[in-house]
Amino acid sequence: MNNLIVATNTITGDEKAYGLAELNEMAPDHHGFRRYQIIQVNRNDKLAQFRFDMGSVDKFKGIKQLRIPSLWEHTVDELKDLADELRYVHDFDYKDLLQVDKLIVA
Fold it and tell me: pTM to 2 decimals?
């Protein structure tokens, strides 16, 4: 089983993305935790990750980690703008965000 994650060093704002996450993870040097913005994009028909180090988790105390699915519907810039909006919202309406009330159940 191939569990390797493909990485990419570059992304463009206008390319479609699979999703964006902001997660608190151990730093590569194992000295504390850092907040990373992880954006998933397509590279040669494989899901690839672009990682941006946002700094120490101390700067994000009380701010929830984010996972924003896109499924190729939104661009990198659109997801980053949405993350900027949602990062500091403590109690947002998940049903409204995901438009759950518009689902048709058969």
Answer: 0.79
Rounded Cα gap, residues 22 and 82, in angstroms: 12
Enter the tokens of residue 59: 């700067």
Name the E strands within the chain: 6-7, 16-26, 33-43, 46-56, 66-75
pLDDT in tens, 69-97: 999 999 999 999 999 988 877 655 556 55
Tokens standing for 64? Answer: 């929830």
* Domain extent listing, the chain: 6-102
* Three-state SS at 81: helix
Distance CA 70, CA 19 (A): 5
Strand arrangement of the beta sheet that strand 33-43 belongs to: 6-7, 46-56, 33-43, 16-26, 66-75
